[in-house]
Specification:
Layout (H helix, E strand, L loop, with lengths): L15 H31 L2 H9 L4 H25 L16 H25 L4 E3 L6 H31 L6 H13 L12 H22 L3 H12 L4 E3 L10 E3 L6 H19 L6
Parallel strand pairs: 2-3
Antiparallel strand pairs: 1-3
Length: 290
């Protein structure tokens, strides 16, 4: 099908107030309904009110991970309902014009970025083993890994269909300039991540990393004319945290190796740009799915 990704939004009802209402509905499902579900689950795990906040904000446990990620199930369905109920079009259009997900594209994006992300971590572990603590627990990690495989793709997909799907296509009704679209989308992706604890390691540098990742995900979505690569990359990026993480990571999941937080700087940006360049080459030097 020749219909390009941004033009999919023109199939539905697209008055500006529908997007305002759709964004409100999506975020209401995320923050209000999802927040209630998250609090209820945290209370179930914690057993009393005093322990709920600690479990949600400070605990590095499977229970904390599940309670914090249940919100994204509601965010996902909130966006779907907004597209179907307010705009009167299929939510599959957020993925591509074919109205279905291409699992080969998703898998290729996932595997490529997973390998690209893991190699520097193993190199760092080999060169500076003292910076890492091996935290493997046979009673916890396998179940934590299972929960990550189930909940993390839901979490990242909720973010992708909202930012690179709903918002990016909506902005395409205003302007078709790719540079403007990807820069604004990267900025919008950065904003909700400004509360993550990792920013304490260097606000500007860490914020810049989030912005660059958002720009890259928007760029490959427009370049490929579909969402699957971004879905795969984002899922892989977050799944790696069950193998390597830092003690202040927003993921809050027991990992194989845990490192102490270190100040962010130019080298982190350089490594991210190198990783993005490699990924871009792997994705687009040959269209393996053509």
């Amino acid at each position: 099908m020749s219909l390009d990704y941004l033009s999919i939004a023109r199939q539905g009802k697209n008055q500006w107030w529908r997007y305002v209402l759709g964004i409100f509905l999506s975020l209401f499902f995320f923050m209000v309904i999802g927040g209630i579900a998250s609090f209820t689950m945290a209370f179930f795990f914690a057993g009393d009110m005093e322990s709920v906040q600690t479990l949600i904000t400070k605990s590095r446990s499977i229970e904390s991970f599940v309670a914090n990620n249940i919100l994204f199930v509601f965010w996902f369905w909130g966006t779907v309902l907004a597209v179907r109920g307010i705009h009167g079009r299929s939510a599959w259009g957020l993925v591509g014009a074919e109205q279905r997900i291409n699992w080969w594209r998703f898998s290729y994006g996932f595997v490529a970025w997973f390998i690209i992300s893991m190699i520097p971590s193993f190199i760092s572990l080999w060169m500076s083993p003292g910076e890492y603590k091996f935290d493997f627990d046979i009673n916890k990690w396998p179940f934590a890994f299972l929960m990550v495989l189930i909940l993390t793709p839901i979490q990242t997909s909720a973010e992708e269909i909202f930012f690179r799907g709903y918002l990016l296509q909506g902005m395409g009704l205003i302007t078709r300039q790719p540079l403007v679209l990807i820069l604004i989308n990267g900025l919008l992706f950065l904003l909700p991540h400004l509360g993550n604890p990792e920013l304490a390691n260097g606000f500007v540098w860490v914020a810049l990393q989030y912005f660059i990742i958002g720009v890259f995900l928007a760029f490959i979505t427009l370049q490929d004319n579909r969402l699957e690569l971004a879905l795969g990359v984002h899922a892989a990026n977050n799944v790696t945290h069950v193998f390597f993480t830092t003690s202040d990571s927003a993921m809050g999941i027991p990992a194989l190796w845990t490192a102490k937080p270190s100040p962010a700087g130019f080298m982190d940006i350089a490594l991210l740009l190198i990783s993005i360049s490699i990924a871009y080459y792997l994705f687009f030097h040959k269209r393996l799915w053509s």
